[in-house]
Design goal:
This protein is mainly alpha-helical and 301 residues long. It has one domain. 66% of the residues lie in helices and 0% in strands.
Length: 301
């Protein structure tokens, strides 16, 4: 069965057992399958094959805007506290549960690979032709759930999903260390991304491709946990525990929010350089209301 622990599989002084060979073979199969799904899904999106997306979206969207409580509850699940944070919590759980150096090095490599999966996903979004989100696809006649701004994310392509890339990358990182926690992480990542489909932020193909991207990058870097330079670098990072955990907290907070503040700042700066941002004038009274939280900041254009 596919239940052997990673700790035993990582022990460098032991000969590779038949169970470990089976483990490695199954991980290669997962890597091959995930890579194939990623490539085929990308090809389908480039060629404009949206029939499956539309069928699934119409099936899900028929429940939208019927009950406010349902839409609001689903919208709540998408918030960082209930979506991204549980995955990082499970990362910290396996980090403190397993103290073996190679296991912890593998966790650190997996988290970094998940982060870069999100970065690569955003790069693909900017490279490929724009893939409209369900919210903005006129061919779908999408029924917008209660509480969702129809103009949300209308300047960003949706394919592939960077949320899915990061969350499924983290889930695979956890799965490689602890099967029980890993299955829970995969369940959490699946629910969160299905919620984003229901809310109209992503097509099913966006989620599928993003998920495969995160899994592929984590599995491709999985072998680095045994490399001497990686272990040396890991030990150098963790030598000063206070600094390491302070930096780790900051980075994990950024991953939870997908570095939204950094992205918004960079986007606003670039738009400002191109003269595309204008800030509406506000009165002193309006400014006072904004400070007191009674009025939102005016939107930039």
């Amino acid at each position: 069965m596919f239940t052997s622990t990673v700790f035993n599989a990582l022990a460098p002084s032991l000969a590779v057992t038949s169970a470990q060979r089976v483990e490695q073979r199954r991980l290669r199969i997962i890597l091959l399958a995930a890579s194939s799904i990623f490539l085929l899904t990308t090809l389908a999106v480039i060629l404009g094959w949206h029939r499956t997306d539309y069928f699934l979206l119409h099936s899900i969207n028929r429940f939208a805007r019927r009950f406010f409580v349902l839409d609001y509850g689903i919208r709540t699940i998408e918030r960082d506290m209930f979506s991204n944070l549980p995955l990082l919590t499970l990362v910290w759980y396996v980090w403190f549960k397993y103290t073996h150096v190679q296991v912890r090095a593998g966790i650190l490599v997996g988290v970094l690979a998940s982060f870069f999966a999100g970065v690569l996903s955003r790069g693909i979004q900017l490279t490929l032709p724009t893939h409209l989100r369900p919210l903005h696809d006129p061919a779908l006649h999408f029924q917008v759930p209660f509480g969702i701004d129809p103009d949300s994310l209308n300047h960003w392509s949706s394919f592939p999903s960077d949320h899915a890339a990061v969350l499924f990358g983290l889930a695979m990182t956890i799965f490689l260390v602890d099967r029980a926690a890993g299955w829970l992480a995969i369940l959490c990542a699946t629910i969160v991304n299905l919620v984003r489909v229901y809310l109209g932020f992503h097509n099913p193909s966006d989620i599928l491709c993003g998920a495969m991207l995160g899994i592929v990058l984590v599995l491709m870097t999985y072998g680095l946990r045994r490399r001497t330079p990686v272990l040396d670098l890991f030990q150098a990072f963790t030598r000063n525990r206070a600094v390491f955990y302070a930096v780790a907290f900051y980075v994990c907070f950024g991953i939870v929010t997908l570095f939204t503040d950094f992205r918004d700042t960079a986007s606003g700066f670039l738009q400002g350089l191109h003269g595309r941002v204008t800030v509406p004038a506000i009165s002193a009274h309006q400014g006072d209301e904004i400070i007191r939280g009674k009025r939102d900041l005016p939107r930039t254009r």
